[in-house]
Amino acid sequence: MPGQCLDDELDRTFYGIEVTLEAVPSPLPPATAAAVTELARSAAHSDGVNPLSEHTLLHLDGEHPDDVHVLAYAGDPGASDLAGYAALGPDGSAELVVSPQYRRQGFGTSLLRMLLDHGGSRLRVWAHGRLPGADELAGRLGLEVARELYFLRRPSAPVPAAVWPTGISVRTFVPGEDDAAWLAVNSAAFAHHPEQGSWDQSDLNDRLQQPWFDPAGFFLAVDDASGEVVGFHWTKVHEDEGESPHGEVYVVGVAPAYQGTGLGKALTLEGIRHLQEDRGLDSVVLYVDGTNTAAHALYTKLGFETASLDVQFAPVNGLAPDSSPHIAS
Ligand SMILES: CC(=O)SCCNC(=O)CCNC(=O)[C@H](O)C(C)(C)COP(=O)(O)OP(=O)(O)OC[C@H]1O[C@@H](n2cnc3c(N)ncnc32)[C@H](O)[C@@H]1OP(=O)(O)O
Ligand SMILES: N[C@@H](CS)C(=O)N[C@H]1[C@@H](O[C@@H]2[C@H](O)[C@H](O)[C@@H](O)[C@H](O)[C@H]2O)O[C@H](CO)[C@@H](O)[C@@H]1O
């Protein structure tokens, strides 16, 4: 829906007496963003998995005019606390979460129906951890699994020394100097990825400003002959409330012309060494798409094991209701 925006008037859509849904434009008022963050924290504590991804949480703040936020209340908005939330991006990707105290009362169904109204056949809604009920709710509304994202964990174990391909050296990322070079190799490495390959300077800036960002954990592989950045391993440390600190292989990418030379393995090992030895972290995690056979083979070899699964649901054969979105063009 690029370039589209919500009507001037709040687009309030009612799905029944008990549930009030309100589609609100970006930017969310700070108090509303805080309520959504608390709702997500409460659900994570109850379910053992975060219902909203980093991208959605980052987009709660700031101007993202192509995003749609949906708030669910029991009764009139403001008359009660937030019962649920859904986010819909311009590419049809979406997430939704219902407060643990409002489960099995139709809020999830109402939120998903509204996402289908707005997203149509492009809707791709996440179910992180594929929790009980996700498949049932999705199936009831004509959705099926369209994508699998595996969450892998590597228990603490010695890290073999990285063996670098000839003519390649490694250094760490310098914010403000390496941005363009990293964006270029990231988009080349992830040219076929639904999200990663389209990251731009704004996406990078969002993350450079995060408390977890640490350039010492962001490794760049450089071709000595050309000086070109040809690969990277960006690590991340999670120190979230209620979780033991752990490291993440956040993103590993190798320029297509350098793939199959041992560079991905070397970069991955260097990042794991950093997380374990420099940051003193025991376990290391990562996300990898189910279709990514190369990455899966690499990580399995390095001792990663499947810990959980996220899935994305999509309308069966694009048969979603063909209702036109409730948004002005
Ligand atoms: C946590 C994440 O970031 S998941 C996303 C990972 N990144 C991407 O998918 C971006 C696009 N792909 C790439 O950048 C690369 O293909 C990577 C990072 C997956 C692998 O990097 P490469 O430099 O090609 O890997 P490298 O040459 O070091 O191979 C290491 C091992 O990976 C596996 N592997 C690499 N490529 C392949 C392939 N095409 N098919 C099967 N296995 C493969 C093998 O086990 C290989 O070991 P081997 O050569 O001894 O058999
Ligand atoms: N290995 C990476 C790059 S290809 C990957 O698969 N990322 C996924 C993953 O991102 C994680 C997610 O945003 C978590 O909320 C965050 O805490 C992690 O740090 C991220 O790695 O899942 C996303 C969907 O939730 C997906 O869009 C990314 O491509």
UniProtKB/TrEMBL annotation:
<feature type="binding site">
    <location>
        <begin position="96"/>
        <end position="98"/>
    </location>
    <ligand>
        <name>acetyl-CoA 1</name>
    </ligand>
</feature>
<feature type="binding site">
    <location>
        <position position="248"/>
    </location>
    <ligand>
        <name>1D-myo-inositol 2-(L-cysteinylamino)-2-deoxy-alpha-D-glucopyranoside</name>
    </ligand>
</feature>
<comment type="subunit">
    <text>Monomer.</text>
</comment>
<comment type="similarity">
    <text>Belongs to the acetyltransferase family. MshD subfamily.</text>
</comment>
<feature type="domain" description="N-acetyltransferase">
    <location>
        <begin position="23"/>
        <end position="166"/>
    </location>
</feature>
<dbReference type="InterPro" id="IPR017813">
    <property type="entry name" value="Mycothiol_AcTrfase"/>
</dbReference>
<comment type="function">
    <text>Catalyzes the transfer of acetyl from acetyl-CoA to desacetylmycothiol (Cys-GlcN-Ins) to form mycothiol.</text>
</comment>
<feature type="binding site">
    <location>
        <position position="195"/>
    </location>
    <ligand>
        <name>1D-myo-inositol 2-(L-cysteinylamino)-2-deoxy-alpha-D-glucopyranoside</name>
    </ligand>
</feature>
<keyword id="KW-0677">Repeat</keyword>
<dbReference type="Pfam" id="PF00583">
    <property type="entry name" value="Acetyltransf_1"/>
</dbReference>
<dbReference type="GO" id="GO:0008999">
    <property type="term" value="F:protein-N-terminal-alanine acetyltransferase activity"/>
</dbReference>
<dbReference type="GO" id="GO:0035447">
    <property type="term" value="F:mycothiol synthase activity"/>
</dbReference>
<feature type="binding site">
    <location>
        <position position="54"/>
    </location>
    <ligand>
        <name>1D-myo-inositol 2-(L-cysteinylamino)-2-deoxy-alpha-D-glucopyranoside</name>
    </ligand>
</feature>
<feature type="binding site">
    <location>
        <begin position="104"/>
        <end position="109"/>
    </location>
    <ligand>
        <name>acetyl-CoA 1</name>
    </ligand>
</feature>
<dbReference type="GO" id="GO:0010125">
    <property type="term" value="P:mycothiol biosynthetic process"/>
</dbReference>
<feature type="domain" description="N-acetyltransferase">
    <location>
        <begin position="168"/>
        <end position="322"/>
    </location>
</feature>
<dbReference type="InterPro" id="IPR050276">
    <property type="entry name" value="MshD_Acetyltransferase"/>
</dbReference>
<feature type="binding site">
    <location>
        <begin position="259"/>
        <end position="265"/>
    </location>
    <ligand>
        <name>acetyl-CoA 2</name>
    </ligand>
</feature>
<dbReference type="InterPro" id="IPR016181">
    <property type="entry name" value="Acyl_CoA_acyltransferase"/>
</dbReference>
<feature type="binding site">
    <location>
        <begin position="252"/>
        <end position="254"/>
    </location>
    <ligand>
        <name>acetyl-CoA 2</name>
    </ligand>
</feature>
<keyword id="KW-0808">Transferase</keyword>
<protein>
    <recommendedName>
        <fullName>Mycothiol acetyltransferase</fullName>
        <ecNumber>2.3.1.189</ecNumber>
    </recommendedName>
</protein>
<feature type="binding site">
    <location>
        <position position="287"/>
    </location>
    <ligand>
        <name>1D-myo-inositol 2-(L-cysteinylamino)-2-deoxy-alpha-D-glucopyranoside</name>
    </ligand>
</feature>
<dbReference type="InterPro" id="IPR000182">
    <property type="entry name" value="GNAT_dom"/>
</dbReference>
<feature type="binding site">
    <location>
        <position position="236"/>
    </location>
    <ligand>
        <name>1D-myo-inositol 2-(L-cysteinylamino)-2-deoxy-alpha-D-glucopyranoside</name>
    </ligand>
</feature>
<keyword id="KW-0012">Acyltransferase</keyword>
